[in-house]
């Protein structure tokens, strides 16, 4: 048999796929790939810093200087 990987775009699609699989008695497994918590914290900190004005704007002419 082959394995299918499904990429639903929203929760409604996900629920529909799960219901169809259950109705057809097709086994499936759920795997989540959470981001590394340290990476998430850095991204959130960067967003916070940007919103607070803590960033440096670099002019394109000076980008490689």
UniProtKB/TrEMBL annotation:
Pfam families in the record: DUF2683
Highest taxon, organism lineage: Bacteria
Protein name: Uncharacterized protein
Organism of origin: Pedobacter miscanthi
């Amino acid at each position: 048999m082959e394995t299918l990987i499904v990429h639903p775009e929203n929760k409604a699609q996900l629920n529909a796929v799960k219901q169809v699989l259950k109705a057809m008695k097709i086994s499936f497994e759920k795997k989540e790939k959470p981001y590394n918590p340290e990476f998430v914290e850095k991204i959130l900190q960067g967003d916070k810093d940007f919103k607070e004005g803590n960033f440096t704007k670099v002019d394109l002419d000076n980008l490689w200087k």
